[in-house]
Amino acid sequence: MFTGIIEEVGSINFFKIVSENAEISINCSKILEGTKIGDSIAVNGVCQTVVNISETGFTAEVSKETLNVTNFLELKSGDKVNLERALTLNERIGGHIVSGHVDSVAKFVSAEKSNDFYNLKFDVDEETARYIVKKGSITLNGISLTVADISGKILKVAVIPHTYENTNLSKLKQGQNVNVETDVFAKYIEKFLLNEHTTSMITQDFLKENGFM
């Protein structure tokens, strides 16, 4: 489990396909503190298990499923990636609850500076868009962000300078893919409401009246 608050921006040492899976090696420093083999680290929002550690970084094995739903196949040596260690129970949750299980990718459309903020737009697919609501939470490349607006398939987020400058958002190029994880609660709510056998008093109107939707 993660929070979406990026601890460090690392760089890809190498990314190589191994049979139907892959191996990823990342150069970093800060997040190595206290990290051991078997720990989970979010790489651009993708939960990865550390299989090897060195003085300059770590290595993880990437499953076929991860390759199918993330932007990992586009990674190359030198690329910058957002990194976050798994949440511990004695830490504050500064962002929102992030599982590290990516839903899809979205294409970066544009970035525009407005006063001190950066307005970023992304094109998401229809399946993902159904779980996105204005003022709700979303994770892009592992970064916990608030949805400024969603119009059709166009997602807009307003990013503060600190986040923009200390993550790989500032490196995005038009048309580049980012990993998307929607708010897990949206999925649970949808499944609950579609369950015809439920007898609970919680309805869609109840959720709206109490600020959950």
Task: Spell out the key features of this protein.
alpha+beta; six-stranded antiparallel beta barrel; 5 helices; six-stranded antiparallel barrel; Elongation Factor Tu (Ef-tu), domain 3; 213 residues; 12 strands
Please describe what this structure looks like.
About 15% of the residues lie in helices and about 40% in strands. It has five helices and twelve strands. A six-stranded antiparallel beta barrel has the order 1-2-5-4-3-6. It has a six-stranded antiparallel barrel with strand order 7-8-11-10-9-12. It is globular. With about 210 residues, it is of the alpha+beta class.
Summary, kept brief:
With 213 residues, the chain is an alpha+beta fold. Helices cover 15% and strands 40% of the residues.
Topology:
Layout: E1 8-18, E2 21-27, E3 40-43, E4 46-53, E5 57-62, H1 64-69, E6 80-85, E7 104-114, E8 117-123, H2 126-129, E9 137-140, E10 143-151, E11 154-159, H3 161-165, E12 177-182, H4 184-194, H5 204-209
Antiparallel strand pairs: 1-2, 1-6, 2-5, 3-4, 3-6, 4-5, 7-8, 7-12, 8-11, 9-10, 9-12, 10-11
Give me the CATH architecture of the largest domain, please.
Beta Barrel
- Strand residue content: 35-45%
Number of domains: 3
What is the mean pLDDT? Answer: 90
H/E element string?
EEEEEHEEEHEEEHEHH
Structural class designation? alpha+beta
List low-pLDDT spans.
none
The assembly state of the depicted protein chains is single chain
The CATH first-level class of the largest domain comes to Mainly Beta
Q: CATH topology of the largest domain, anyone? A: Elongation Factor Tu (Ef-tu), domain 3
Distance between the termini: 23 Å
Total beta strands:
12
Placed side by side, the strands forming the largest sheet appear as 1-2-5-4-3-6
